[in-house]
Structure formats: structure tokens, C-alpha cells
């Protein structure tokens, strides 16, 4: 291990593995270490025995739940936007050859105790029971504006400069009702609170366009795709990419300690008495706990069921967003379900997750609105984790620390963090202008 590397990466979570792959492709000499004996860190997928061990101690799971090895239960459950940044990164790096994807069946939103399919186009808006007749017409006009909007074509702007006009102003121009704003802002634009309303509308409009384009990509019932065998496949795929380009991997390395010189710059990592030298360190917050601060907490319920979620057209995989206002919360609640159709559970079994930014110390009570939508549950596990962001100055210490995974059930915020870190590490922007038609080939219809 006594060699010098350009970068040492600590932890094999998805963010660290994507960065390891990207940096190796760039020709940097990368050493990737993890204190665990498995890939994935916090973003791993567990079989049933591992799930029981983690949440129930040494208990053995009930036999009626099926074979342990047929379960791949994500600890950070997220779907992938079909036209989004993660797919662009997968294609850019050719990691798609290590993975098989399948479209997600449904995308729904919660309103006044019921769930509804999310309309994403002018045509769907006219059919949606979410809105009354006159509101449908107003929403249709808004969707047509968004669909036709092209940043480079001033004619499509209708006299609005979206870098100056707020989302609230553009919504009021179309006279949309509060409940309509709720589902557009939270289930289409995927904002997790209402702060976006007073920010420039350009991001809001781009997010809705991304949703609609992703929906069109696979002609499915949602804009999302998801890997067969669960998300634990993703870190491993990027790890393989890194290895192909000369990256070195070491799992089960105890007490990885970052070493600093007299001026406070990271110069290496020591484990089991051996030190590897490096110019830069990339890691998750658990490896440099004195350089991060706690900003919140995610609380989650993991449920095993023997049926699909009611009122979702028997969908094998589905996302339901419960907007904050509908629940009297400060941020949204997310419901994510997948099943044997994605090879993450035995035949006939479904895995559902209810996630939220914790606003109380009582997860059972806090997550109740989402859990009540699930119907009968075979087993339920609750877990919470603190979320951290880095506080260090990377230029001073050469340490690049990822932020903890949030409660959202999609990957856009995750990849934004990765691309931002990549730019800070390398000083260049990753060009993701790839041929997205290739993405269709990466997913099974």
C-alpha cells in the first residue's frame, strides 16, 4: 500500500464510486478503500438476513417471507430520472454495459387523503381528476408554455425573462389554484418545500421539462427507471469502471485515518499500520467527522408486503409524493415501492419505503400518513440517520467530502453534488452532452 496516488477515495457509497470512476477515466491514479467488507456504504442493498441482523439483532427472518438471497432492499431508495443527470453520467462513462434497467410503472401524488396519477403534459392535464374543468384548461395552457419553452428561442419566452421572474409570478400569470401548484411544484418539478416559489423560474421550468421528457423516453407510466437487482448494483458498476481504468480497490480496511501535514493539507491515509500517500482525499462524512456539520435527519420506514399499493393500478413499482402542505409539514414525504418485477424480492412480494426529513422524534407517528396508504404490511422496520454537509475549505486541506443522501426518492440532487465535487477536484466541468437516445437501449421496456 506504500505508494503515492493522485486521489484516495474513502467509502464505497454511490457518490464516492461515481467520482472514483470519473477520476480514473480522467487518467488519475486512484486508490479506493472502505472500512466495510461490502460495496455501497450507506447506499447498499441488503438481503433478508442482513436486513434482520441490522434491525432485529440476531433474529432470523420468518420462512414465509421467502428466500433471503432473493431480497435486495435498498438502504437509500431512489428512482432514476430517465432523462436526468445520472443516466447522462452512466452513458458518458459507458457504465450502462454493467447494468440492466426497467421502467418504473407509476408516478402519483397525494391530495386530500387520496392518490392520483401525476399529469405531466397538456393532454394528460385534460384527463386528470386532480382538477376541475376550468382549472384543467388553465393547467393545459401552462403545460403548453413549458413544453414549448426553449432557452435559446426568445419567441418561446412570451416576454418573460425566467432568470428574473419568480416561479410564483409565472404561476399567477396562468391563474393556477393552490392544489395545482402543489402537484406541479412537488410531483413534477420535485421541489421538497415551497422555497422555490420565490426563486427565479428558470430552474422550476427546466425541472418540469425534464420530467415530461423523461416520461416520453420509455412510454411508460412514469419518468423513472430502476436497475434490476436494486441500487446496490450502481456503486459496483462504477467500481468496475474505475478498476478497468487502473483504479485500485481495498475493502475491509479498518480505521482508515486521513493524515495531514503541518499546514493542514491531506497527504495520505493510514490503515492497519500502512500509509498510502496522496494529493487529495475524497470521502463520505463518516471518515472526516470533524469537517462536517449536522443539518437534519432523515426518517424512513421499510415495509415488506404481499400486494401492490392500493389505487396504483396494481403497479409493481411506483413513486408517490405527499406534498408538505397536504400534511401540514415543512417538507414533503415520499413513498417508493418496488417488487419482484425488478428482482428485489421473491415472487409475490413488494418492498415499500416511506421517507421524510424528520420534523419530530417519533418516526412511527410522523410517517403514518404514508404508511396508511400501503394497506396490510407483513413486516415493518424504522430507521433514521443524521444528514451532514461539509464545512471545510477544500483548497486549504485537499479534502472533498460528499453530503449525506437526502429523503427524496430520485437521484437528481445526488448527482448535482457529485458533479460539483468533480469540478472542485479537477477544476473542470464534466461535459454530459451525450446522445440520450442511447439511454433507451440501456433500459428494458
TrEMBL record:
Transmembrane segments: none annotated. One of its GO terms (cellular component) is apoplast. Keywords: GTPase activation. One of its GO terms (molecular function) is Rab GDP-dissociation inhibitor activity. Coiled coil: none annotated. The keyword Signal does not apply. InterPro entries: GDP_dissociation_inhibitor (IPR018203). GO terms for biological process: small GTPase-mediated signal transduction; vesicle-mediated transport. Belongs to the Rab GDI family. Regulates the GDP/GTP exchange reaction of most RAB proteins by inhibiting the dissociation of GDP from them, and the subsequent binding of GTP. This is FAD/NAD(P)-binding domain superfamily.
Amino acid at each position: 500500500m506504500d505508494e503515492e496516488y493522485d486521489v484516495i477515495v474513502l467509502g464505497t457509497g454511490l457518490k464516492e464510486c461515481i467520482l472514483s470512476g470519473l477520476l480514473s477515466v480522467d487518467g488519475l491514479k486512484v486508490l479506493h478503500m472502505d472500512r466495510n467488507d461490502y460495496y455501497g456504504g450507506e447506499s447498499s442493498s441488503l438481503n433478508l438476513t442482513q436486513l434482520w441482523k441490522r434491525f432485529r439483532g440476531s433474529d432470523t427472518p420468518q420462512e414465509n417471507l421467502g428466500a433471503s438471497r432473493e431480497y435486495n432492499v435498498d438502504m437509500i431508495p431512489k428512482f432514476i430520472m430517465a432523462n436526468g443527470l445520472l443516466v447522462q453520467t452512466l452513458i458518458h462513462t459507458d457504465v450502462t454495459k454493467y447494468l440492466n434497467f426497467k421502467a418504473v410503472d407509476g408516478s402519483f401524488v397525494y391530495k386530500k387523503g387520496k392518490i392520483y396519477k401525476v399529469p405531466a403534459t397538456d393532454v394528460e392535464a385534460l384527463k386528470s381528476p386532480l382538477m376541475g374543468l376550468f382549472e384543467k384548461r388553465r393547467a393545459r395552457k401552462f403545460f403548453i408554455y413549458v413544453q414549448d419553452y426553449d432557452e435559446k428561442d426568445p419567441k418561446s419566452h412570451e416576454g418573460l425573462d425566467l432568470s428574473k421572474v419568480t416561479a410564483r409570478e409565472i404561476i399567477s400569470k396562468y391563474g393556477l389554484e393552490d392544489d395545482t401548484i402543489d402537484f406541479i411544484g412537488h410531483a413534477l418539478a420535485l421541489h421538497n418545500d415551497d422555497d422555490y416559489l420565490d426563486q427565479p423560474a428558470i430552474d422550476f421550468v427546466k425541472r418540469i421539462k425534464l420530467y415530461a421528457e423523461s416520461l416520453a423516453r420509455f412510454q411508460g407510466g412514469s419518468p423513472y427507471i430502476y436497475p434490476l437487482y436494486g441500487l446496490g448494483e450502481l456503486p459496483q458498476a462504477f467500481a468496475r469502471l474505475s478498476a478497468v481504468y487502473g483504479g485500485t480497490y481495498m475493502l475491509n480496511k479498518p480505521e482508515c485515518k486521513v493524515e495531514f501535514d503541518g499546514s493542514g493539507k491531506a497527504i495520505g491515509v493510514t490503515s492497519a499500520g500502512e500509509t498510502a500517500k496522496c494529493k487529495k482525499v475524497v470521502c463520505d462524512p463518516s471518515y472526516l467527522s470533524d469537517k462536517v456539520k449536522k443539518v437534519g435527519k432523515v426518517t424512513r420506514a421499510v415495509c415488506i408486503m404481499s400486494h401492490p399499493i392500493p389505487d396504483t393500478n396494481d403497479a409493481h413499482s411506483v413513486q408517490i409524493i405527499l406534498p408538505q402542505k397536504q400534511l401540514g409539514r415543512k417538507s414533503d414525504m415520499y413513498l417508493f415501492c418496488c417488487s419482484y418485477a425488478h428482482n428485489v424480492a421473491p415472487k409475490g412480494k413488494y418492498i415499500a419505503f416511506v421517507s421524510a426529513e424528520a420534523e419530530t422524534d417519533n418516526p412511527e407517528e410522523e410517517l403514518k400518513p404514508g404508511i396508511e396508504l400501503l394497506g396490510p404490511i407483513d413486516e415493518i422496520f424504522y430507521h433514521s440517520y443524521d444528514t451532514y454537509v461539509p464545512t471545510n475549505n477544500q483548497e486549504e486541506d485537499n479534502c472533498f467530502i460528499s453530503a449525506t443522501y437526502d429523503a427524496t426518492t430520485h437521484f437528481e440532487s445526488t448527482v448535482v453534488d457529485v458533479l460539483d465535487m468533480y469540478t472542485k477536484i479537477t477544476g473542470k466541468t464534466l461535459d454530459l452532452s451525450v446522445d440520450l437516445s442511447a439511454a433507451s437501449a440501456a433500459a428494458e421496456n
